[in-house]
Structures are given as C-alpha cells and as structure tokens.
Amino acid sequence: xxMAETLIILFAFCTxxxxxxxxxxxxxxxx
Length: 31
What we know:
- By secondary structure, the chain is an all-alpha fold.
- The protein has one helix at residues 3-30.
- It is rod-shaped.
C-alpha cells in the first residue's frame, strides 16, 4: 500500500536533483 507514497517521494527527489543540476549549469554558464 506504500507503493504510491514511495513513487511520489522518489519523483520529488528526482525533481529536486534536476533543479539543482540545472541551477549549477546556469551558474557555470553565467560566469
């Protein structure tokens, strides 16, 4: 029954990771 919550948590972590990577790439490109 916890499968849905697990998928939501994994999706949230993936989204945060992608945002962090995008932010780092943008900062590197700005310099």
